[in-house]
Every structure is written in C-alpha cells, then in structure tokens.
Automatic annotation (TrEMBL):
Gene3D superfamilies per record: glutathione-dependent formaldehyde- activating enzyme (gfa)
Cited InterPro entries: CENP-V/GFA, Mss4-like_sf
Alphabetic keyword roster: Lyase, Metal-binding, Zinc
Name of this protein: GFA family protein
Pfam families xrefs: GFA
Organism this protein belongs to: Aliikangiella coralliicola
Similarity annotation: Belongs to the Gfa family.
Single GO MF descriptor: metal ion binding
PROSITE patterns noted in UniProt: CENP_V_GFA (PS51891)
Domain of life: Bacteria
Record-annotated CENP-V/GFA domain positions: 2-112
Entry-linked PANTHER family: CENP-V_GFA DOMAIN-CONTAINING PROTEIN-RELATED (PTHR33337:SF40), GFA DOMAIN-CONTAINING PROTEIN (PTHR33337)
Length: 122
C-alpha cells in the first residue's frame, strides 16, 4: 500500500495496488496544471484509490472532453486525473504527491511533441 497527500496535508489518500503505466506527460495541459515542464503520473484501477481525508476539499476541472483533473482547493496540489474514454475504470495519480517511497521500474515519456524548449535532458 502507498500513501500520499497534498502540500497542505488536508487531502490524504491510499493506493491499494501497485501503480502501473508511469509516464512523464509533456502535454500542454499537464504543463499548465503543474507549472512545470511535465507531470509524472502512475495509473491504477479507480477501485484501488481511497481518500482518507479531505475529499470535501478536492476540486475538479474538466481540462478536456474526456479528462477530469482533481486538486486540493486549499493548496492547489494536483492529485489525479481520470475519466479517460479509453480507460474509464482507471485513475492516474500525480506521483510527486506520494509520501510512501515509490520507485517505478519504467517511466515512459508521452506527448513529447509539446516538450518545452528549455528542458535539458541528461
């Protein structure tokens, strides 16, 4: 089991299975939402995500027709996105919000066509 929380600590959650399909997403929506060059998400079945506290302060935003993003309305931490038409029973968690150590064996880079020009790859 993995545990995570937002910056202010009002939202906390648990993951009840090993996250899958970890990716650095370079799309413009993730860049804007995170204020960063990319966002790193790990996917798992929605049924394996439990909010322990703060579900009442989670805000949601439809960033596109098929994606709903959730974040803490107090501190702004991005927590999840879901509602993908391709994978409706899955959720993607922003792994930077994990409090439990997690070391994915593989991370895929996606939407690299919109990568920022100032990101230095090493």
């Amino acid at each position: 089991m993995y545990k995570g929380s937002c910056l202010c600590g009002k939202v906390s959650y648990e993951l009840h299975s090993e996250p899958k399909a970890v990716s650095h997403c370079h799309c413009n929506m993730c860049q804007k939402q995170h204020g960063a060059a990319f966002a790193t998400y790990a996917s798992l079945p929605k049924s394996d995500l439990s909010y322990i506290s703060g579900s009442e302060v989670l805000a949601s935003y439809n960033s596109s027709e098929s994606v709903v993003r959730k974040f803490c309305s107090n501190c702004g931490s991005s927590i999840e996105w879901s509602s993908s038409k391709k994978f409706p029973s899955w959720v993607s968690i922003a792994i930077a919000t994990l409090d439990t150590p997690y070391n994915p064996s593989k991370i895929k880079n996606i939407y690299q066509a919109s990568s920022v020009c100032w990101l230095v790859n090493s």
